[in-house]
Amino acid sequence: MFEDVWAAATAGSRQVVFVGGEPGAGKSRLLVEVATTLYQHGATVLAGTCIADLGLPYQPFTEPIEAILSALASQEVPGGAGELQLAERLMALTGRGDRSVTKQPEHHRELYDAALDAFRAVAAAGPLVLTLDDLHWAGEPALQLVAYLVERTADCPILLLATHRTTDTDRAPSFAKTITPLYRLSGVRRLDLAPLTVDDIANYLVREADVPTRQARQLAVVLREQTGGNPFFLRELWRDLTTRSGSAAVDPANLVAPESVRDTFRIRLDRLAVDARRVLEVAAVLGDTFETAILLAANESGADVVLTALDDAVALGVIEHEGGAAEAFRFPHSLARQAVLDLTSPSRRMLAHARMADVIERRFPAADRRVQRLAHHYAAAQALGLAEKAVHYLSAAARQADRMLAHADAAGLFDRAATLSADATERDDLRLAAARSYFLGADFARARELDEHVSTTGEPGARVRAAIGYESAAFRDGRPGHRAVELLTAGLRSMKHDPTDAAYVRALASFGRALSYSGRLDEADSVLDEAVALARALDDDGLLAAVLQANVTAIRVPSLQRRVTFDRATELCDIAKRSHSVYDLGPAALFRGLDAYTLGEPGALSAAKADLRRAASLTGQEHFDYLAECVDYGQHFIAGNFGSAERTCASLREFGVSLGKDTEGSNGLQMYMIRRETGALEKIRSLITGDEDPAERWPPGLLALYTELELTKPTARLLHWLLDDDLPSYHDTSQWPGVLTFMVEAALFLKDEATARRLRPLMAEFAGINLITGEFNALFGSADRYLGSIDSLLGVGTPEECFTSALQLDIRTGAPIHQAQTLAASITHERRRGARTPAQEEIERAQALAERFGLTRVRRLLESPAGSPRPPLPDGLTAREMTVLALVADGLSNRQIADRLVISENTAANHVRSILLKTGSANRTQAAIYAAARGLVT
């Protein structure tokens, strides 16, 4: 397999192999053998590993990047014009960045792109092999970097080999979440190492131990049973057996093996003197790999005892020299080190940790991973009165991780420090720091949990900060605002109401947003307006940005406040760009885009999409790219580009899977909106009984489906079920405009005047603006169209004025689909009021739009029995052929017609041939002239 993989990599196609297996399965050895072989064939090899103890963020990339930094310094790897900046970013990623002289990165993307550029530069000089060992011990930021590199190096001559344990107890949840989606990519493979078979073991004995073939087979059967086929256990067991008896003297009939690796090493340790065994126990506490100098300093037995113990341990195979040097040693496998630790009493381990921490702190200021090691050792020895030291170094390690943008790692460290702190104020501060890091790492649930705890039990000064944090995390997680209102109310009562205090103003803005998500919209508007005024008075861009963000993300009274929120979102975008605060830019751009659609400003909508792309590029947060794709879907939909809209839907669904988002509901609604306009819902009519249980589905969507399929009784049943039982649950959500619209459509279909009358005041709240659900999941056009249709049904008001207003907004929005829908609604009204011949110009415009964009739903409304019969089509052309003819006249190819109408290219070609035959046209140009001469196209 590796020959094929390497051939593909050298041909310029990035290859990845994730090698999995249980501890001791031979993963690391396979990695070394493959990398060594490829190195001998001219490949550049960069190797990194993870450690079980507290390591640096982004391990296992530290070692490969350190090697690249050295190569950059010696000009072995060209860094290009941005070499200095690249080196600074790489130093920041390894934790060596000097904050006093280098501009620290502000976003993950800067670090990830630096790593990407570095590995690409190495690969440009020749095929690169990157090995990442024990990836199951990597933190979430490092795993995200793995995914980032894999997804963006498809065209590079790179082979990435990574090992990981497949045992559940050894793998963090983030491993599966981040790595599993990569298997869908081209060139990514998984290789799980199975236990050795009897034949494998027999071959090993013949090849490695010169055991005669017949005896090897007998021994292999017993060894397979004794070791379970674990390669490491087999090797160590065979070593013990041959040390005692010699390979030729091993008798299969009398072979009795220790039950585990731990027992194997216990037997060896028993051969050491007591002092020597104590040395090995301290070494195991020090790590898988340990420095001789630190071990000497940490042992009080004297250098002779320590060095003799090391020599004896090497002879017994308990440890081995690191890289052939005497300056450092290593355990042959993490299982070996764990075996020694398991055989050491907890009290001796704790004392060893304390001694190690003291020695490293006092005598080794330049030790590798010094802060992380001190945090690890002091935390393990905190029961000896060293908790204060543990808190200090855990906090220092957390701050370093935060500086490196490894927020998930930092959060865990702050959290752990808080549990060890004896000081109440410090404990609150650490919990708030942990909550902030969890928030930045998108673990909103844990952030909310910590903030709520501090807000209810913490010191008075911390409570309001915690309440603000809780509200932010609750909002990001899409939760109602009632609990946040409670916490912020208590927090605001505990502090002085000082309009010049930035903390008070921030709390006020947070309180306003929480009120809005509790359904108290009028109160929310008042509080949010006050917070904006106070922030402007303080002339602090950072404060104003925070307050504006609370404003634009709050739920506001629809029609009255859309212009206000749009203006504030635009202002926030400007501040974010000016201050390079792209974490503000993303949310601001989203809400600016939503308001741009509702207000009918297509230029601002495109600008918002560009800002979302920029936020994604600078922060590395693909969620902003996802939102930009949502805007893209909306623009395609209202423009009638249904083929492009459907392709965007497919892309969004894949995007959602890769981000770990549940986007099935959003995707389903987006596809439904396309299919109902193009008449594709007929394909599923046979699957709908009308007796579906709304509790098992999204009831508003089911209602919309019943309405479109004209299922009268099911529509009435579900409409009144929503009105009577479930309506309040939707009112304060981003789904509400869509839910309301689907109910109005159902009432209009049923001609249910009582329900229409009940719903009109709710729809009137949106007068003058477009209706949209969620993150561009469903775009309905002007609320005035629906108000006009309701008034037409009820015989009240001035529906004509509503339709005129709606059409003006449709045109301003640049939405021909909405124009056709409004014209059809206006024509339906004219027919209802008894006009024998509705405005012919309106009919012709609506028909032209319906034919041009394949709007089956609009065509159905125009052909309603309530109105005049539609004039016959010329020369026997069908309605679908008229649609195709309009697109031919626009110059579209068969492929483009197929994309527009969501049909196959072959079907499009058949329609064109039929049109040419019926119209007597010799070619497409004559067909276009035919259409223009008869006024069939505009």
What attributes characterize this protein structure?
DNA binding; Tscrpt_reg_LuxR_C; ATP binding; Rossmann fold; AAA_16; 938 residues; WH-like_DNA-bd_sf; 3-stranded antiparallel β-sheet; mainly alpha
Structural topology:
Layout: H1 2-10, E1 15-21, H2 27-40, E2 44-49, H3 62-73, H4 83-94, H5 108-124, E3 128-133, H6 140-151, E4 158-165, H7 173-179, E5 188-192, H8 198-209, H9 213-227, H10 231-245, H11 261-269, H12 274-286, E6 289-291, H13 292-298, H14 303-316, E7 320-322, E8 325-330, H15 334-342, H16 346-363, H17 370-380, H18 387-403, H19 407-420, H20 424-440, H21 444-457, H22 460-476, H23 482-493, H24 502-516, H25 521-538, H26 541-552, H27 558-579, H28 582-599, H29 602-619, H30 622-639, H31 642-658, H32 664-678, H33 699-708, H34 712-726, H35 728-731, H36 736-750, H37 753-764, E9 770-773, E10 778-782, H38 783-794, H39 799-813, H40 816-832, H41 840-853, H42 856-862, H43 879-889, H44 894-901, H45 905-919, H46 924-933
Parallel strand pairs: 1-4, 1-5, 2-3, 3-4
Antiparallel strand pairs: 6-8, 7-8, 9-10
